[in-house]
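Table 4 source record.
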Amino acid sequence: MNETTQKRQGNFLTRLVRKQIFIPLAALLLLIVFNLIADPSFFAITLKENSLGDLVLTGNLITILDNASELVILAIGMTLVTAASGGQDISVGSAIAIAGSVVLRVLCGTNSRPDTLQAPIIVAFLACCVVSMLFGAFNGTLVAVFKIQPMVATLILYTAGRSIAAWINNNELPMISDPSFAYYGNFLPGVAVPTPIFIAVICMILAWALLRFTNIGLYSQAVGINASAARLNGIHPQFVKFLTYVILGLCVAVAGFIKVSRFSTINYSVVAKDIEMDAILAVALGGNALSGGKFNIWASVLGAYVIQFLTTTLFKFNVVSSALPFNTVKLDRAFVSDGTDNRRGRIVARNTITLAKQLGMKIIAEGVETVEQALFLRSLGCDHAQGFYYSRPMDARDFETFSFVRRKCFWVDPRLQETLPRPEDDVWAKK
């Protein structure tokens, strides 16, 4: 190898390292190499039948692409906000709770648990977009007009957002029983790829078009680098900052719609909890300066996927992250008991168990009172169950002599399953 060739290779490596997208690419490569060495089956993708009887793609890679969808969408908006304002919006998690609550309010109407949708899904989505953009405009006004530091300005909504979300639905737990709503957070009938992946791709295409055919990207960079110089060149810094927060509000609306569609319900206190930290981390991991200025949206998008890749890897190898210090999810009795009468409980139970399995978590269902409920949960892959079907509360001494459990509790010993009816014979599970 001659000296000229060596110099060319050295220059190429130097240019590569200096590229903004190098950081997330390097992190992604390290994760890929680690998983290839530790467990090559990590990358396996299979076609399996889900609980609805549809053939869908499953595997860790599908889980990564699916679960990262909301974060990818938020990273797009957060990158623009960071570039223009030199700060971050820490209220996006609470704003997602508001967006999801608005969707459920429109679809449920005055009844928190209707049997049919009270409005078209598109109407609920548009209402969600309007409300989220208004809250984005609120944050943008505080930052652009009143010149409040972004994190301080968005702290208001961060603090009050989840309470507002609960107030929208009168502190009730709304729930959608119509299966068509769950399509947007899970799978479309006959489509093997999760719907959120398609939505994320559409958002990325729209972001590309926005940057390609408008000056919003150039203006955001100019304002972030030097607002005074941008003003002298005919750019309105306040309007640019305001607009980026409105765009982020739209991203929040889409992410909130996906979140609430995954479960057909919402938990105001935990939905999208700490996602604002992940969104900021995605921007930083993409090599974007958190102080504003030049940015690369695609590096932020890749950073979001890297974060989800790392999260999935941790769960795969039973390493519990500090953000999620638990490995078991409890399915509330309200969803179990409700399922005997209509599809509402079955939808929530099915989606909750599916997501928990994707994250490598265990599921325990409470409030099991009938053999139909037990068999339905068993057919979904529920790991553990408790309830009056097995026994009333008893002390340790009584439990030691309790022989009835050997006949009913099929989670105790797999050999006992042979004595129970098969899931395919259960009428309720087929509804």
